[in-house]
Protein: OCIA domain-containing protein 1
Organism: Aotus nancymaae
Amino acid sequence: MNGRADFQEPSAEVPRPITHIGPDYIPTEEERRLFAECSDESFWFRSVPLAATSMLITQGLISKGILSSHPKYGSIPKLIFACIMGYFAGKLSYVKTCQEKFRNLENSPLGEALRLAQARRRSSPPGHYYQKSKYDSNVSGQSFGTSPAADNIEMLPHYEPIPFSSSVNESAPTGITDHIVQVKVNKYGDTWDE
């Protein structure tokens, strides 16, 4: 060595280590840009068209008499409801597309977490899942930085269902009789049974 420490160039992008993606996660600049892009695209390409279409269909149903209008407010409440439902349906319908965009993002901890979660879902056979408690012990003591949802899903062993017997003697509750106790009450509130 020549007495100088070798440093990386400041312009060289060093991928951040994958940390646990949780509520305190701070997205990278590229991830923030992609969040804004997904928000805009889901609004203009999904929410607006679905809201407008649902309002037109609702107004058509009201004008044909299939839906009734409010006596005081007319068709406005139903149109507002249709608009809100169309808006949220549009936002929800864009989630898979946005996830795919994040999966294709290079040097992104969030993209890496989504890729790992997708790989886990594809590699595991269809079965029963349960949510692991955050208090369960972690054998290795380490988290590998996948999403919280992917960290908390574990496979349960596949069990065959127990056949249900419809036999009266096996399925009837025990200790219950058909005897009905009649309680009489007089006008003073005194009770007795017969």
